[in-house]
Write a structure and sequence with these properties.
With 686 residues, the chain is mainly β. Helix content is 5%, strand content 59%. β20 and β21 form a beta hairpin.
Length: 686
Amino acid sequence: MLDRPLKLAVLAVLASAVGVSQSPAQGNQQPPVVIPPVEIVATRIPEAPHAVPVSIEVISGADLRARGARSLSDALSLSAGVAIARGGDAGPASAVPEFWGLREFDAFLLVVDDVPWGGALNPAISSLSMRDVERIEVLRGPAPVTYGATSFVGVIHVVHSSAATRSTYAEVHGGNYGTGGGGVDFGLPSFGGWTSRLSGDFDRIGFRDEHTSITRGHGLLRTERPFGSGRFSLNTDLNVLRQNPASPHPRVGNQLTTAVPLDANHNPGGAYLDDDKIAISAGYDRPVFGSATWGTAASYSYTGQNQFRGFLTDVSDAPDNASGYKENIGINDFYADTHIIWASISQLHLMAGADALLAGGEARGATFTYSAPLNGSSQPSVPEPNDLNLDAGNDRRFLGAYGSAEWRPVDRFSLSTGLRLNSTAESRGEGAEITHTRLSGSVGALLGLVERDVDHVRLFANYRNTFKPAAFDFSLAENEGVLDPETSQSYETGLKVRTLSGRLDFEASAFRMDFENLVTATIVNNLPALINSGKTRFKGIELAGDVRLPYSTSARATYSFHDGKFVDFVQDFGGVPTELAGNRIEMSARHLASAGFTFAPEAGLLATASVNYTGDRFLNMRNTALARPFTTVDAGVGFRANRFEFRVDGRNLTDRRDPVSESEFGDAQYYRMPARTLQTAFAVRY
């Protein structure tokens, strides 16, 4: 059952929608709301979200700024069917997303300005910049044609403002737990035909546990200029990240143990998780063959990660109750794509292209044991190992050739289909190279039941088939070799509605995804490792409604029911193989809901508030530890004038500390939701 705060929030949003629908005179006095076609993640062709037969939404940069969103979890807090848990094993600057009921760090694809961010390995969430964002596109389910073997249960595409944007925005902010920072975004003077924009920021984020923090410096330079009949662009992104990691909270039996205080940190003294990343990308677009457009892009990135950290292995004050490791990792990523889009040939839209995604990483490290106070009262002094005698390496090569077509014989109906030939190769350590060649693809249909000016009622359905080479996490455990690829087939159908002259949007969808060779975590020699395990099935429904009210006011409400279960899944527990068929997927909540409103005029008072509900979920595969539902509340208030803005934002005002993601470091350990935070900000814009 939904608790009382969520019920009230949902009723408020519905009441707003009813109020609009009962005021036709007021609605007739205002022009229709026209939403521009900005979504490109599904087809690479700019289209409105309601014009493609998949579940997708676009969050504008203006909406993000109005809500004071500074992280991916803030930005997607009102997205249907998506839940973002802050933190995780990759540090407090990272996050663990959930799509369609599957909460896995590496099951989705993160794209930044048309480039897979993290490449062929894992999404680089911790180095993602949320400054100067133009929009975020969220696709639920795989994108088996445009991004192939790297997108599995969803795609998040973050698009920053273009180099041609001339506005200037400067900001300083501060909050509790020693949080503070500032940043600036501005257009540079044109030089030699180049138009450029620079974003820079520095942040220090503190947490209730004084041993956990984030310090980040970031810069993004975007440049572009006309070249021949087309346009050439060049982006350079530099991120310097220093993290003092948190500790997961152990579970004993059916609940998180009370022997460990809420914010205990069992890392050794001076623990760190450092990440330096530089990424360079270039693109060129030009018209060819009359109505066709040719686009090509390439990117290179280098990431250096250095870690010194540990975690409990024995929930007691016994000697050597913790294990730790020091590891230095270097990762090189290269991405290239070229494609041609025929925007309109008779009643057809066609696209054909090819891409390459290459990654190579090498890690060297050492492990150690140490004694940590169970109550986390102090962090023990542990010397860092000098002899890095363990190693882990991975080399990947993903190649693809793809094509898609959209046929629109009449205005009310379109049929979309796409096919991709994937060729993947991977080797781990000194092992032999393993290759896979297979097809992936999709087919979808969109039917306009009602079409009246900007208003419509459209029915859609799609089928998607894809696969993904198994994740690799540079574990120092025994090298398990190359795991089998994960594969999935998904089916989705739904309804997209726009009414009241474009002021009210509603989307409903139902899905089913059959999953094989799911990669799960295990422990080898007190270190995390990965294994393949059986078949799973995810089913559910997802609902979302948006109301665009007068006076710069908007409201949104969502609800999702997710039913993720093991179908044929055997896991070893204490040396005993256990069949888990019929059990719910761990950490997957059956019910997710959200409601929020934003009042953000160009000048004057501004206000925003949102409520998020997470239903019960099992903490373990055996379904013996059930976590209770919880509700969080975020709110902000501020004032805007012609050139400045002042605001105060509160996150997790209910101060819930529930477990939101599972650690792969130790058995039965979980990261909690961060404590309540308050932050003030002052911004100047020109």
